């Protein structure tokens, strides 16, 4: 059965720092268990890397209710849409798009099935992986308004960074088995 430990063991030697960071973060105490494992799960989903998703899903299922697992999936899904839309609107030279309504359904944000603050934290972490500055700012403002500390918010960023790095290490290790073709 997949687990965070099996994920760590599957990482190549050059990803030793990532292995250590995943261990440290799994024991992080600045977040509640639901906040921590929901962050791990939503970030794993955001990487779209099968081994990472399977291992973290298995580990998270021991710490999250079915409702919280569903909400983590919802956070990854809704932010996949929002991060593309809002990052694009923010990056475009034509600022007229920023004044237009998105006209995209986002009802799950208002009723995620878990504490709103937890869903905001997971949405924030997924936005870090996707690189959407507008979403990072918007969710961070909601987290601060709800009383989350900078250390707690930073923990979600650290989880996003380490989970994303694990996915990159696993994908890049595939090229160690098959030499990269050299240009002639």
User: Which runs of at least 5 residues are low in confidence (pLDDT < 50)?
Assistant: none
Radius of gyration: 17 Å
CATH superfamily: AhpD-like
Shape: globular
Number of alpha- plus pi-helical segments:
9
Which CATH class applies here?
A: Mainly Alpha
The CA-CA distance between the termini, in Å, is 44 Å
Structural class: mainly alpha
DSSP helix fraction: over 70%
CATH architecture: Up-down Bundle
Structure, briefly:
The chain is mostly helical. Helices cover 71% and strands 0% of the residues.
Q: Which short descriptors sum up this protein?
A:
184 residues; mainly alpha; AhpD-like; 71% helix; 0% strand; globular
Describe the protein in words.
The protein has 184 residues and is mainly alpha-helical. It has one domain (4-175): AhpD-like (Up-down Bundle). 71% of the residues lie in helices and 0% in strands. It has nine helices and no strands. The protein has helices spanning 4-10, 16-26, 33-47, 50-61, 66-91, 107-110, 116-130, 133-145, 150-177. Helix 2 packs antiparallel against helix 9 and helix 3 runs parallel beside helix 7 (116-130). It is globular. The model has no long low-confidence stretch (mean pLDDT 93).
């Amino acid at each position: 059965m997949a687990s965070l430990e099996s994920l760590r063991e599957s990482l190549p030697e050059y990803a030793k720092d990532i292995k250590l960071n995943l261990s440290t973060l799994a024991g992080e105490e600045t977040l509640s268990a639901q906040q921590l494992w929901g962050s791990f799960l939503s970030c794993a989903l955001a990487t779209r890397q099968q081994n990472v998703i399977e291992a973290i899903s298995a580990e998270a299922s021991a710490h999250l209710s079915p409702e919280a697992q569903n909400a983590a999936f919802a956070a990854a899904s809704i932010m996949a849409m929002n991060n593309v839309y809002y990052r694009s609107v923010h990056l475009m030279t034509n600022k007229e798009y920023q004044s237009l309504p998105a006209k995209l359904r986002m009802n799950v944000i208002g009723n995620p099935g878990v504490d709103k603050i937890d869903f905001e934290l997971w949405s924030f972490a997924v936005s870090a992986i996707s690189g959407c500055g507008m979403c990072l700012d918007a969710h961070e403002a909601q987290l601060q308004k709800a009383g989350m500390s900078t250390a707690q918010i930073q923990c979600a960023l650290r989880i996003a960074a380490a989970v994303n790095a694990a996915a990159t290490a696993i994908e890049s290790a595939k090229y160690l088995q098959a030499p990269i073709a050299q240009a002639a």
